[in-house]
Specification:
277 residues, alpha/beta, TIM Barrel, 8-stranded parallel sheet, 8 strands, globular
Amino acid sequence: MRFIDQLRAAQAQNQSLLCVGLDPLPSRFPAGAARDSEGTFAFCRTIVEATADLVCAFKPQIAYFAAQRAEGQLERLIAHIHAVAPQVPVILDAKRGDIGSTAEQYAREAFDRYGADALTLSPFMGFDSIEPYLKYPDKGLFLLCRTSNPGGDDLQNQRLVVAGQPRLYEHLAELAATTWNRNDQLGLVVGATYPQEIARVRALAPQLPLLIPGVGAQGGDAEATVRAGCPHKDSGAIVVNSSRAVLYAGSGADFAAAARAAAQATRDRLNAARAPV
């Protein structure tokens, strides 16, 4: 199944716009949990099993696993998600950005080694840094566009050449929605901390899926995010990510129940803000 079709099916089945980000930090694991690579796998597996019927995607962040020498555990985790929640796609958050044969290897890593259904990419080296991933036509590709961090202004919010021209993030959105989107695989990453700019990206790319981090610990407004990203019932899909607010909702033996409660509350808030069918 193509990623976009899997995503839409998961959103319909679980009635959810919520993506849970898997950013395991051993220092924040509950008391008594192992803090090694196997503990990382066990913690994430428990979160997945507690929330799988509440989400439209899971998004493991590769750096949190690689820093712990837990790449093998990441492979097992993605395989476990596919086994216990085959309806839920996995977006590997790696933000790769390189060209030629190096990009080909990154694509192999994400899709052949880890078995991810989609991948985040940095597009700032141009289309030839995206092209190798298009050889996997069933996979989704989310391009960084207008990110949630304050430093995104340094480049993304700058105008091209002269005042009156589009800002860089607007130019990226237009490229992703048109000439770059050869196989209908592309989506965009737009931070929840900038709802007006989510609305601008949606206007430029009305049908592209938007991956929206920043709800929860980063302070993004869930309702404003949904209104900006889904102004109409026929707008493109949005995938609203929350990581720390779900993962670390509880610090005791009941951490899985606390994570589930946080995920359910966020899902319900997002659904309440959706455009009427």
